[in-house]
Amino acid sequence: MASIDANPASGTRDLLPAEVARRERAFTAIRRTFDAHGFAPLDTPAFERLEVLTGKYGEEGDQLIFKILRRGDHEASGDADLALRYDLTVPLARVAARYGSQLPTPFKRYQIAPVWRADRPGKGRYREFFQCDVDTIGSDSPTADAATLVAVTDALDALGLSGFRVQLNSRKALRGLVEAYGIPAAGESDALTALDKLDKIGADGVARELTERGIDAAAIDALGADLTADDPAAAVRARLERSTVGQEGLAEVDRVLALVDGVVPVAYAPVLARGLSYYTGPVFEVVHDQLDATIAAGGRYDGLIGMFQSSDVPATGGSLGLERILLLLEEAEAGVTGEAGPQVLVTVMDEEGAADALALAARVRAAGLTVEPYSGGGRLKLAKQLKYADRRGVRIAIIRGAEERAAATVTCKALATGEQRTVPLEHLEATLAELLEA
Amino acid sequence: MASIDANPASGTRDLLPAEVARRERAFTAIRRTFDAHGFAPLDTPAFERLEVLTGKYGEEGDQLIFKILRRGDHEASGDADLALRYDLTVPLARVAARYGSQLPTPFKRYQIAPVWRADRPGKGRYREFFQCDVDTIGSDSPTADAATLVAVTDALDALGLSGFRVQLNSRKALRGLVEAYGIPAAGESDALTALDKLDKIGADGVARELTERGIDAAAIDALGADLTADDPAAAVRARLERSTVGQEGLAEVDRVLALVDGVVPVAYAPVLARGLSYYTGPVFEVVHDQLDATIAAGGRYDGLIGMFQSSDVPATGGSLGLERILLLLEEAEAGVTGEAGPQVLVTVMDEEGAADALALAARVRAAGLTVEPYSGGGRLKLAKQLKYADRRGVRIAIIRGAEERAAATVTCKALATGEQRTVPLEHLEATLAELLEA
Description:
CATH topology of the largest domain in chain A: BirA Bifunctional Protein, domain 2
Oligomer: homodimer
């Protein structure tokens, strides 16, 4: 038979054991944290009916949705009726609408799961990648926003990612800012897009963009002066006093700041916008100090669930930049041998010894160790088995040929040091414990 | 906006927190067992290039593959180039071919992951469901077959599913059986299909089917006599002496029986076929005694990986009937309240108390408990918060109004008994520990 290309599909990855183990460790730390914060796990299907997803992510997003062909007689039509989930938020909104009264209010859930986007694959950009979301549905209280911040930053701490700071703003404060600087409502979206780039392009760059977008020079000058002041946050705060919605936004920011004071390293970030999508209240991002990169973000989105039912439901949440975080952890762990094979390999010296090896493995396992009997084929050479043990990161090889079986002894070999002990069979567990401790 | 149907797509399920928690408990028990047996986790993408999957599952299987529409300009063509994985075995075979020398030999992996089939949805039949596979690639040794049996049955034990027995056969013994009873080679597939139904339709039913399929009456009579003998296995064994391949098969069966003797409750099952797909050597199924249902199965398939490369690679493995097992566990757990909310809820009595509640929650969490501050919106009524606590399965509510804050005390209320204690703040952790123990 002609052989088939054995690569995974473009933009997807096979995760070999060392990588799965690394990711599972991270996922477990995150799950434990969110559990400890009273969030509960939710799981939704990989695919949704097409109309659940389309129209939620903007035109550009819609084009990146993987669509599934209709089946059976309809396949020939070339039509799609299902689609792979594009994020975890829209399925959550559907669940909130579907199970409303069956769920506690507020409904606090987390989900760590893959999503799929037909993006052009590139370095660090995949068509299948994991998202990690934590959300509170059905509460308009700032306590919910604050609890999100605490849970998200605790999860980062649990992952060993210290050295981050949180930037906080409010979509209401942003609307106030546009109002206070005299930017016309029609220019709001353009202005916020430019302002959101402040960190990347600086105050001059923002001013240039605003000019290009036709914003009034007086407004740009005032903004520029405030953003380059000694304390930009204080300068913008003063300006927001002129706008009702701006004051509301500031109050929202200050409420959350007060709630997490001394717990989370958070500061008011007057031009942070977090895109312009569905956020309606506080928005935040967590920036890793050394990398100057966003590793988590979120905010309040009180309008999204209303797409699936007649009434709006308030909601707030956050998302860890999981793939970026996993990359950071991988770098931090560089040099650590990944493959976590079993602690013990029971070698097989001859055919007659195979049943004995299985029995020994069961005995060692009963002592709480991870262990396998060598189960490779071909000739039973010890050198080959020890090489395999080394490849798997095994710490101790048990060797027991005909002679040891006859004498009721067993040999334990520590692979790192080469130390080898032949002991009575009843001392097996104790010997393994000693060698593992050494 | 017109509201959208909020149900999950046909044949798929939303897994609410109690259900996710139940499944995660089972998955964790299985993962631990396979880890303890030296198997390592592998993860492959949800979708594969279409040609990786087609032609592997027979005509009927091919029709159940979910196909993904080409993207961008090609979308209009109505063609598919990707497909959702249909099982975990074909992706494993692809991985074995792709990473061959980078993997240890033998390569022992497990995978617990969803697969998708466009089956007609029905009771207990889903279009998205989990499979759990454990396989050893690159070994022709019976030790690998035996180690699979031990790992699979240990996993069932770890899940609390005692009371099962293992039926073991060999595809070679089956070929020998056909030969020994004088069934023409052309009728082999038909005969095995009929024989595989022995448990369901009895010896008479099998004889009827064989007659319908045009098998010689003398062969049917001989088979019928042996299968209804006092010891059918012994009768078939005697008959297999006449066939070389039959003897080979019996030797294979006996070798595995000897290797797991006293460890796994296993018996030779002379007509067990496990379908007719890709198995080449030993095949087994694990039958739950009470249910008389298969809860795990597997066997050796030395030909599959050769589809992705020029040479064959021996392989053997097993699969837990995960969805069926989860259903059994659900029944066993019926009556157990599912939702595992946090142990402690810190109520919020007034706006001023919210920051205090967050700080108390952090303190309780530092003591190792799961806890959340009440983060619902609306009026801060205690009754509403206690109802929410009850709904989440919370065990203790912390209550701390202005009076307690002024007095540096705190009130802990055990929700099951209603017992309530007001203690100095420094006694919080000790009081919680006592109430949780009660």
